Amino acid sequence: MHGDPRTGGAGPGAAGPRRAGPGDGEALAHYYDDSAAHYVPGWRSIEHYGPLVADFLLRSATPGCRVLDVGCGPGQLTRDLAPDVAVTGVDVSARMLAVAAAGRPSGRYERHDYHDPLPEGWGRFDVVLAVGCLEFCRDLTATLRHLAAACAPGARLLVGVVEDRAAGVPGRSRRPFSEDGLPGVDMHCYDVTAQLGAITAAGLSPSSYRYVPAWRHEEYSLLVHYGLWELRRASPATNP
Length: 240
Hints:
Elements: H1 26-35, H2 39-46, H3 50-60, E1 66-70, E2 86-91, H4 94-103, E3 108-111, E4 125-130, H5 140-149, E5 151-162, E6 172-178, E7 182-190, H6 192-201, E8 204-217, E9 222-233
Parallel strand pairs: 1-2, 1-4, 2-3, 4-5
Antiparallel strand pairs: 5-9, 6-7, 8-9
Helix pairs in contact: 5-6
């Protein structure tokens, strides 16, 4: 998901991913609440994945479809989709959701933790976007299972998972997110084998994988990379 335009109240471009996955609860909600009003300009100065998301949505968000924007923040990734596309955005930051709703009044915006199942009453989605939010995902398999359960048959997903190839640790690793802004909160990283295992366990099928630069972490002079996956939710088999 997107980049955070500040660290502990610093100016644009300070650090981090925008979409708060709530592994650390209210601390993340408050952190992103504080940056909601001025988030987008800072995000644009440090992110690298916006064009990749736009290309995916151009190919996937067909007329009349239902799109789930996970960790939507201020909604900039899906705000300009066609009016006949139904957008539902979820985030842990109430102020981010308010900005998103103001930018796309026809959308539905709900406070939700992606570590929890989505309410069945929300229905099923044709397109799911989870990019710029999984930095705080402490259980990738469970989270992807929740997203898969919210998919309509044949749904397409774009998922970005932090992949730290320098960690030297198989499976999952952690690194500090921001000692200035969120001390004690870690960014969760998964190697490609762990990512694929979580995808398969969630009942999703990969269409493509790319290792891509995601956003510039200025506090640590680090370029964060994603394993960026296009996935499908299988359609049920039909009898001849």
